[in-house]
Every structure is written in structure tokens, then in C-alpha cells.
Amino acid sequence: MAGRSCYRDVLPFTAMVTVEITNVGLNILFKSATSKGLSNYVFIVYSYAFATVLLLPLPFIFPSRTRLPPFKLSLLVKAFLLGLIGFVANLCAYKGIDYGSPTLASAMSNLSPAFTFILAVIFRMERLSVRSISTQAKVMGTLVSISGALVVVLYRGPTVLSNTSEKDWVKSGILLTVGYLLFSTWSILQVISTSLVIH
After folding, report:
1. What GO annotations for molecular function exist for this entry (predicted)?
2. Domain carrying residue 166
């Protein structure tokens, strides 16, 4: 019983922390590599190739019991669109880091849950109940995330070990915002596509 509780409560938290640490590490690695002359596009190709090598064996190691949907052209189009949105999101995010810094990217990544919540409401995947404490907390979290991102972009503060101009800093913030909006769209579309395939 204790093991099941630990699995249910601790594992998601551990996964979330691991993903955040990985993202910050990847942002720092990207900034370091591109400052030494590596192209943004080459870095994205390398990261996609590494992810493919890492994830491709998983279906063979952990086979799924669910039956795969029949192959149709619409499925191929959805996969292509998801890949395109993911690629453009990565491109915007990495270009934003190129103009700004990994620190700015980490601060702006707090927009992802806010955008995901807003899109979930728009696509009616999330219901708003004004009297619900859960809804109030989500709305407050969304407002705080967006306000924090605006403060980070518009008020840069004193320059510390950085040579980016004010114009580049704002450009970086805009690109990162677009990137994280696309990441949230990508996540929502994946859920919608999966639910349509399952039903």
C-alpha cells in the first residue's frame, strides 16, 4: 500500500523536476554551443536525432496493449502538423535563447502551464467554475505567470555578465512567448488527436 502511494505521489513530482532540470540544462548547452558557432538548425537536428535514438527502442521494451489505429492519410497529416508545430516551437524558443539568455528562457517557461490552461478552456477540455477553489487557483496562477513573464521581459534590471541589448532582450521575450504558446498548442493538439483516435 505504501509503495503504491509513493508511486502515485512521488513519481509524478520526480518526473516534473527531472524534465525542468533537463530543459534548463538543454538551454544552457544550446547557448554555449551556439555562442561557439554551432547553427541553431544543426542543434535542433542533433537534439531530434538524440531523442529518436533514446525513445525509439521504448515501444519494443515496453509493448503497449492497446491496438494501434488503422493507418489513414488523416493520421499522417496530423502527425505531420504536430511535428511541424513542435519544430517551429523549438525554433522560436532556441532563437529566443540566442537573442537573450537561458535564464530568461527558464523564467519564460512558466508561461507554458498558463497557455495550456487557457487553451484547455478554449477547447472546452477544462471547465471554469467561478466558485470552485481549484478554478480560482488556476486562474490566479495563470495571471501570476503571465504577469511575471511581462515583468521579466519589460524590466530587465541591472546587467550581469550579459552583452545583449534592450532590443534583443525584448525580441528574445517575444520569440520565447511564441515558442511556449506553440508548445502548449502542441500538447493540447496531442491530447485531442489521441482522444479522437481512441474513440
Report:
1. transmembrane transporter activity
2. 2-198
Q: Which three cell numbers stand for residue 71?
A: 493507418
Cβ-count burial of 143 within 10 angstroms (0-12 exposed, 13-18 middle, 19+ buried)?
A: exposed
- Joined grid coordinates for residue 93: 524558443
Q: What's at 186, amino acid-wise?
A: W
Consecutive H or E run containing 108? helix 102-108
- What total of structural domains would you count in the chain? 1
Amino acid identity of residue 34, one-letter, is T
Q: How far is CA 135 from CA 55, 140, 148, 149, in A?
A: 35, 9, 20, 21
Radius of gyration of the chain (CA): 19
